[in-house]
Every structure is written in structure tokens, then in C-alpha cells.
Specification:
The complex is a heterotrimer of chains A (306), B (242) and C (319).
Chain A: E1 5-7, E2 10-12, H1 27-42, H2 50-76, H3 85-91, H4 93-113, H5 117-121, H6 127-160, H7 164-171, H8 175-197, H9 203-227, H10 241-253, H11 268-275, H12 279-302
Antiparallel strand pairs in A: 1-2
Helix pairs in contact in A: 1-6, 2-4, 2-6, 3-10, 4-6, 4-8, 4-9, 6-7, 6-8, 8-9, 8-10, 8-12, 10-11, 10-12
Chain B: H1 2-10, H2 13-36, H3 42-78, H4 81-85, H5 91-121, H6 128-155, H7 159-177, H8 186-198, H9 211-234
Helix pairs in contact in B: 1-3, 1-5, 2-3, 2-5, 3-5, 3-6, 3-7, 5-6, 5-9, 6-7, 6-8, 6-9, 8-9
Chain C: E1 20-29, E2 32-42, E3 45-50, H1 57-64, E4 72-77, E5 92-95, H2 107-117, H3 123-133, H4 149-161, E6 167-171, H5 179-194, E7 198-203, H6 206-212, E8 215-220, E9 223-228, H7 230-236, E10 242-248, H8 251-259, E11 264-270, E12 273-278, H9 281-295, E13 299-304, H10 309-318
The chains are: A mainly alpha (306), B mainly alpha (242), C alpha/beta (319).
């Protein structure tokens, strides 16, 4: 390496290795970095185009019912409430479940598979920080998927009605529950999906496992409640991901589910009405599930040998 | 040999136990049904809720999906596929071995689950035709699903998600809404075959597709899927570093 | 592209010459050209594909092995194309670059699997022989998942030679091998080449190629930059002066005498040596001893100093 040599009016500069003298951002910065990186990775930003197709595709699918509703409003010239805000999540529950199933292995399986975890944990990042950042990232992604269509529907209804301000006046009370339910549901799905997905580095098993949870609990609980309408099986819905989500939403909105006239219109609200279990239990079940999921997730990383 | 190798790979210890546990769930449900003895005809319940609603709609596609996409997909993903492909073996042999390796564990688990749970639910009634019908249908349907999913794993590295979207969005939502699309759903084929063989009254169980069209479509889809998979595998390319 | 059947082998190691023949082979991915109009032939012996990372070596090897279709041109292996021709693998052994092996199989089982898939008449004997050849007898009954990188490499090699192929293709075979394993493998490859096999390996490590390859193919940015014996390549590089190092009884006197010779471009006195840049290798090699004798200076040492593959390579890469 050349040293500092002064010759007449010339200088030679030292272009060798330098140590870093700047500011060292701390743990908080590490957490937010993992968060942002994961969130971008969920949607395939910063990666090859093929990893954008599925997240964006499913995101578009979650928008479809909103498009239909707004379309109705635009064409029908009166507010037709095809979709109530608390209904909406039920319509898109399968795309949402597929979304988390697709994305969870990307978030937690990839690091395990490529063994890059030691890179993360040899920094100012605790295992709990990593877990929190990952869950927050997935929850944020889900929140976007849930709230964008809700906003579209709300605004569509407002703008499409004859009295926009009147619509807002009547329905502004819905905004808080919409956001709250979105946030809670996102947290629920994110923690469950990551808890399941982190158990294996093989991403077929991870994705399959997440969907298996939602699908199997849903169907078994439905069968039990529909066939055995009274008695202990009523509480089966407390174990079904989709039903818990629906019950939680209804609880947040303060709406009681009612039985449809024909007995079974296939909706979850109807299922819940059939089961006739207090809504607050669903909220509690959601909370318990989230806590268990987070613990499972944390335990997985704490015990992981790097 | 490829068959044995893949089976060893797929039926590893922990996933295998989980699979068995899952397969036991329908049996549990049947037991609960039996114990609670509700006011529903067992044949109707068994056909519609247990066999159609639970096994054919959820367990059949999920298990064939996982085994089907892992049979070849995991090797393509981690690079060990090259070892199998750099041997003087016709690609058709590779595909058929992988297909068998995916189908066997899936069908064994599914049939065990089906037989036991249905037997419990239908005990004492004359519903054996339902059992037979669904047994045949699930055996054939699982084969068709495996063909499709093995093809997917050759076509794309996102085979599992593609398969999930096919099963839960296409078969689950689209074909329910638009009856014309039912000819593109393996689930409908399976139910059609079950209906044909079970021969029950429409009050008990009714499928959307007739039995004969279902069988034909199932055969066509299976053969086509395998054919395309063989063709694609013989043109397998390794993209990689320079 | 004519699809010829591989010709029947008269002996396990004889191969029609040339064993490998590329004519204007190219491969592109959309706008990116990975291999650009490359033609060469390879016969028995050891040939090294040398090039920086990203130059196209792996692409060429994959095309040779039948795992990539050339976008244009022909790639012939043993008289036919390897693309869509699984039968050709009877005569070709491939050692891929990726590290993965089936972790749940033992080393022996893995090689045995390879032997069986090759439909050998006595797979167990072949497997045992292959394992002995790569010196893995101690570890053969352990699960391959627990092998070190170098052991996995040797295992892949055993699986590739179990069917005694006349052609061997190796992609970065010395990655992760410790020096001793590397030497063993090099000896092994030399022995196999001496039996008449055609061996092609790729590497970006000059030292390995220098030591092992009889013939070098230098690939830079998808193009064939040079081929042949690397010393000959050097001599062909006339637009770059050769350097020699001389040590003599009286360096200054020799230097002033040498400067008069037309083949000398420049001389430098470095410690107790003379560093001479000459335009003409042959000319200077003949002139220097003569000049020394005429000047009455004893010549102790005369070395061409940039005949290394490294200097050839860096020249070719920078071109």
C-alpha cells in the first residue's frame, strides 16, 4: 500500500483498508431493518420477478369483492350494501390463508434453509427481536391486504351515494372497528402462520402445514357443529382459525350473528349463530391462540442450533 | 430403486408421524358422531360430511399435494435431481417411479382413514356401497391428483402454492360458483366416480358430474399430465452459475 | 442437429476421437449471452476449462452434459448430442458442482445406487471398487449428511466413475478439497487420463489447471479466449514482452552488452538479478548465452519469469 508521500506539489493517497468510525445504530435499527427487509421480501420486492407473482396475484384476488361492490354502487346509483365491512374478511379468507401459506416459508424457512440465521444473531439482535420483527412484517402485509379493499369499499360507497357527507356521518363509526379488526386478524394469521411455518425448513411442508391448519380445523369444526347442534361440540369453532377470525370480527363490530331463514346459507356468521357461543369467547380464543403461537415461534428460534 | 429412494425421502420420521396423526382425525370425528348419535341418517352424514366434506375436500388434495410436490420437487430444488437424470434411464421411468412414490403413501393413509372412519360411522347400516364407492373414488382420485401435482413440480418451483391455489381457489370457489368449470376439477371427478359406484339415491348423496364422464375425464387428465411431465423432464435444464 | 447413437465401445475406455466437438455453440438467456459462439474439440487426456466466475464454464459443461440446450450451434459428445439422450450417460460420468447429496444415505449406498441406476451387471463390486479408488473406505458406512465438503466431493466422484466411463465431466471439482485430497484426486485423474479417457474439468483457480491440465481452454465473458498448452499460448502473445530473470557473475556488464541486442526492450537491475524484457522469446533465448560468452560473463541462472498461467490468464482477461 502506498503511504502518504509528499513530493513537490503532488501527493499519493492511501487507498487501503479503512476501519469504520461512524455511528453504530443499535438494536432498534436492527429490528426495523429485519422488519423492512421481511416486508419487502413478502411481496417479492428486491427479488426476481417470479416471486412477485403469487403475492401480488393473491392480493389482487382480495381486491375483487371490493371491485364488485364499488362496481355495483357505481352502476346502481344507490348504495347497495352487498358487502358489510365485517363480512368482507370472510369473503377473502381463503386468499388470505393462501397468502400466508405462500409467504410464511419465504419469511422463516429461507433463513433456516440457507443457514443465514447465524448472520442475524451475531448482531445486536435478540431472538425475540427477530421473532417480533418477522411477525410484525407479515402482520403488516396482511393489514395492507385487508384494509386496502375495505377502504376502497368505504370510499366507493361514500362517493357513490347521493349524499357523500351524509354517508360519512352515518358510517364513520365503522372506521375504528374496521381498522381494529384488520389489525387483530392480521396479528392472528401472522403469528399462527409463522409458528407453523418455522417448524420446518422444507417449504412444501411449511406451506402445506399452514393451509392444513386453516382447512382442517374449519371443516372438522363445521361438521361437528352442523351435525351435533347442541352440547359441547358447539365450542368446536373456538379451535377453527376461520371461525375464530369471524367471531373476533363480529365482537369488534358489536354485531350478533343471526340465523338465516333457510337454516344454512353457508356463511360463517350463520355457523356462529348456530353454535350460539358468546362472541367474547372467540376474542379470547384468538388471544390465546396468538400467545401460544408466539411462544411456539420464540421457542423454535431460541432452541435452534446455529 | 428410485421408488425406494424417494419413499425413504418422503416418509421421514417426523413428517410421517404428523401424517399419521392427521389421518387419524377423520376417525376421531367418526367416533364422535357415533357417540353423540345425532338425528341424522348415517349414510347421508357419512357420504356428505365425512367422506365428501372432510376427506375428499380437504385430506385428499392436501396429502396428494404434499407427497406429489415433494416427490420430485424437493430434489429439483436442492440439486440432487441431477444424479437421477445423469443416468441412462428413460425419463418415463423416472416419472413413473416418482409418481408411484407419491401415490403409495398418500393412498395408504387416505384409504386407512377412509375405511376406518366410514366403517365406524356406517356401522350397522347397509351403507357398504357408499364405502366401496368412495374407496374406489379416492384411490383413483388420489392417483389423478398425484399426476397433476408431479407435473406441477416439474413445471415450476412454486408447485405447492400453485397446487394450493388450484385446490382451494379453483376447485373450492370457482367451480362452486360456475358450474361449467366443473369439468376441470379433479375433486368433481372423484365425487362423480363415488356417486356412480355407490349408487345411492340422490337424497343421500349426489355428485355434480355423472360417473362415466368423471371416469373418462380422470383418465384423460392423468394420462395427459404424465405425458407432459415426461416431455418436460426430458428437456430438463439446469440454470446456474457460470 | 443430427442425433446419432453413440458408437459401440470396443473397450471400456476407448472413445471415438474427438470425444467432444463444439461447433459455434452459443447459449443465451434473453438478452444475456452466456456462451458466445464457441468452437473447440477435446480428445483423450485432461482438458481444463479456465475462466473467471461468470465466464460461462458451467454453462459449457452443462451443455456438454445434456442439461442445457444450446441456443445455436452444435454440441457433440461421443459423436452425438447429449441433449434428450439419456443413453449417452452410460459413457459419461458427471460430477456436478452443487454440494447436495442425499443426506440419509450412507456413502456406500449412494455409490451403490449410482451403480444400480447405471444397470451395471455387478453393482456391489463396482461400488466397492469406486469407493476404494477415492479412498473413502473408512467413511463409507456413515450417513452422507455428516460428511465434510471434501468427502462429499469424493463421494460424488466415486458415483461418477462407478460405471467406468470413457468421458468424465467435472464442474469445479476441487472446491472445498483440502490440499491432500486435491493431490490425491489429481493423481487419480492423471491415472485415468493415461488410460485414454477424456476428462474435462472447470476451475477458476489457475494453480489447479496449471498443474493438472494438458490442454487449457480459457473462457472469458462467454468467448473462447485461447486454447492449447498454456506455454505455447504465452509464446503466441507477441504483443506483450516476455520477461526473463538472469543471474550472472557481472550483472552490469552483461546488462550493457544485452541492451545492444535487438530483441531486448529493457533491462532492470533488481537486487542481484537482471530482469530483462524481450520482444522475441526465441530470439532472446538464443542471443543471451551468446552475448554472455562474448562479454566474458558467466551466466548462472536464466529463467523466463512470466510463463505462468497466471500471467497468461491475466493478460487474456484484461484484453
Amino acid at each position: 500500500m502506498a503511504n502518504q508521500v509528499e513530493r513537490a506539489a503532488g501527493s499519493i493517497y492511501d487507498l487501503g483498508y479503512r476501519s469504520y468510525e461512524g455511528a453504530r445504530l443499535g438494536r432498534w435499527h436492527a429490528i426495523t431493518s429485519v422488519y423492512t427487509h421481511s416486508l419487502r421480501g413478502v411481496f417479492g420486492l428486491g427479488r426476481h420477478h417470479s416471486s412477485k407473482i403469487i403475492p401480488f396475484g393473491l392480493a389482487i384476488i382480495t381486491l375483487l369483492p371490493a371491485v364488485v361492490q364499488v362496481g355495483f354502487v357505481a352502476l346502481a346509483e344507490e348504495t347497495v350494501d352487498v358487502l358489510r365491512p365485517d363480512d368482507y374478511y370472510e369473503f377473502i379468507q381463503w386468499p388470505l390463508a393462501l397468502f400466508v401459506a405462500a409467504v410464511a416459508p419465504e419469511l422463516v424457512g429461507r433463513d433456516q434453509r440457507n443457514r443465514t440465521l447465524s448472520l442475524y444473531f451475531s448482531r445486536a439482535l435478540l431472538r425475540s427481536d427477530y421473532v417480533v420483527a418477522k411477525v410484525a412484517a407479515l402482520a403488516t402485509a396482511l393489514l395492507i391486504l385487508m384494509l386496502v379493499p375495505q377502504t376502497a369499499v368505504f370510499l366507493g360507497n361514500a362517493l357513490g351515494s347521493d349524499d357523500s357527507l351524509g354517508y360519512l356521518r352515518d358510517n364513520w363509526k365503522d372506521i375504528a372497528p374496521i381498522v381494529a379488526s384488520g389489525a387483530l386478524l392480521s396479528l392472528f394469521m401472522a403469528s399462527v402462520a409463522l409458528a407453523i411455518g418455522s417448524q420446518t425448513s422444507r417449504w412444501q411442508l411449511a406451506s402445506g402445514g399452514v393451509i392444513a391448519y386453516f382447512a382442517i380445523t374449519f371443516v372438522i369444526a363445521s361438521i361437528l357443529v352442523h351435525t351435533l347442534e347442541t352440547g359441547p361440540p358447539r365450542y368446536a369453532f373456538l379451535f377453527s382459525g376461520f371461525h375464530v377470525m369471524r367471531g373476533l370480527t363480529l365482537w369488534v363490530f358489536g354485531v350478533e350473528p343471526t340465523l338465516a331463514f333457510e337454516g344454512d346459507d353457508g356463511t360463517l356468521a350463520n355457523d356462529l349463530a348456530l353454535a350460539d357461543v358468546a362472541l367474547i369467547l372467540y376474542a379470547l380464543a384468538a388471544a390465546v391462540t396468538v400467545i401460544v403461537a408466539l411462544l411456539v415461534l420464540y421457542r423454535r428460534y431460541r432452541r435452534m442450533a446455529l | 430403486m428410485i421408488l425406494a429412494l424417494t419413499l425413504r425421502q418422503l416418509v421421514g420420521r417426523r413428517p410421517a408421524l404428523l401424517m399419521v396423526a392427521f389421518a387419524a382425525l377423520p376417525i376421531l370425528v367418526a367416533i364422535i358422531f357415533r357417540v353423540a348419535d345425532p338425528d341424522v341418517s348415517p349414510e347421508r352424514w357419512a357420504a356428505n360430511d365425512l367422506l365428501k366434506g372432510l376427506i375428499v375436500t380437504v385430506f385428499l388434495p392436501l396429502s396428494t399435494l404434499i407427497f406429489g410436490t415433494m416427490a420430485l420437487g424437493s430434489e429439483i430444488e436442492d440439486g440432487t435431481a441431477v444424479y437421477l437424470l445423469s443416468k441412462p434411464l428413460p425419463r418415463s421411468q423416472v416419472i413413473s417411479a416418482k409418481l408411484a412414490a407419491a401415490w403409495l403413501p398418500a393412498v395408504v393413509l387416505l384409504l386407512l382413514s377412509t375405511e376406518i372412519s366410514a366403517a365406524i360411522a356406517l356401522q350397522g347400516t347397509g351403507g357398504s356401497s357408499i364405502l366401496v364407492g368412495f374407496t374406489v373414488a379416492i384411490a383413483l382420485g388420489s392417483f389423478a391428483y398425484c399426476c397433476v401435482f408431479v407435473l406441477l413440480s416439474v413445471l415450476t418451483s412454486h408447485a405447492l402454492i400453485a397446487g394450493l391455489i388450484y385446490v382451494f381457489l379453483w376447485e373450492g370457489v370457482v367451480t362452486e360458483l360456475f358450474s361449467g368449470t366443473r369439468i376441470f376439477s379433479v375433486r368433481q371427478y372423484t365425487l362423480g366416480v363415488a356417486d356412480l359406484i355407490a349408487g345411492t339415491s340422490d337424497r343421500t348423496f349426489e355428485a355434480n358430474l355423472g360417473g362415466v364422464p368423471a371416469l373418462v375425464l380422470m383418465a384423460v387428465v392423468s394420462v395427459a399430465a404424465v405425458g407432459v411431465a415426461i416431455r418436460r423432464l426430458s428437456r430438463f435444464e439446469v440454470r446456474g452459475a457460470a | 442437429m443430427a442425433r446419432a447413437e453413440p458408437r459401440p465401445m470396443s473397450s471400456p475406455v476407448a472413445a471415438p476421437t474427438p470425444a467432444i466437438d463444439l461447433v459455434n455453440a452459443s447459449r443465451w438467456y434473453g438478452n444475456v449471452v452466456a456462451v458466445n459462439n464457441i468452437s473447440f474439440t477435446v480428445g483423450p487426456g485432461i482438458t481444463g476449462l479456465l475462466g473467471p466466475n461468470g465466464a460461462g464454464k458451467s454453462t459449457i459443461l452443462h451443455m456438454l452434459a445434456g442439461f442445457l440446450k444450446p441456443s445455436s450451434g452444435t454440441v457433440d459428445l461421443l459423436g452425438g448430442s447429449a441433449w434428450r439422450n439419456p443413453e449417452i450417460y452410460r459413457y459419461v460420468g458427471l460430477v456436478p458442482e452443487r454440494e447436495a447429496v442425499y443426506p440419509f444415505l450412507t456413502g456406500y449406498e449412494f455409490v451403490l445406487l449410482s451403480a444400480r441406476l447405471h444397470k451395471l451387471p455387478d453393482p456391489r463390486e463396482a461400488a466397492t471398487r469406486a469407493i476404494r479408488t477415492v479412498d473413502m473406505e473408512d467413511a463409507q458406512h456413515r450417513a452422507a449428511g455428516g460428511y465434510s465438503k471434501g468427502m462429499k466431493q469424493r463421494l460424488k466422484f466415486a458415483a461418477a466413475i462407478v460405471h467406468d466411463p470413457p468421458v468424465l465431466l467435472l464442474d469445479e471439482p476441487f472446491n472445498g478439497a483440502d490440499p491432500r485430497q486435491r493431490l490425491q484426486m489429481m493423481d487419480l485423474l492423471r491415472a485415468m487420463a493415461a488410460e485414454g479417457r477424456t476428462i474435462v474439468f472447470s476451475s477458476h483457480i489457475l494453480e489447479e489447471v496449471e498443474r493438472l491440465a494438458d490442454n487449457v481452454l480459457v473462457i472469458v465473458a462467454g468467448r473462447l479466449a485461447a486454447s492449447g498448452d498454456f506455454r505455447e499460448i504465452r509464446r503466441l502473445m507477441t504483443d506483450r514482452p516476455h520477461t526473463f530473470t538472469l543471474r550472472s557473475g557481472d550483472n552490469r556488464r552483461l546488462a550493457s552488452a544485452l541492451v545492444a541486442d535487438p530483441s531486448v526492450l529493457g533491462i532492470e537491475l533488481v537486487d542481484d538479478r537482471l530482469s530483462v524484457r524481450a520482444s522475441d522469446f526465441r530470439g532472446f533465448a538464443l542471443a543471451a548465452p551468446r552475448v554472455a560468452r562474448e562479454s566474458g560473463v558467466t551466466l548462472f541462472e536464466f529463467l523466463p519469469t512470466d510463463e505462468s498461467l497466471e500471467s497468461v490468464f491475466s493478460y487474456l482477461v484484461e484484453r
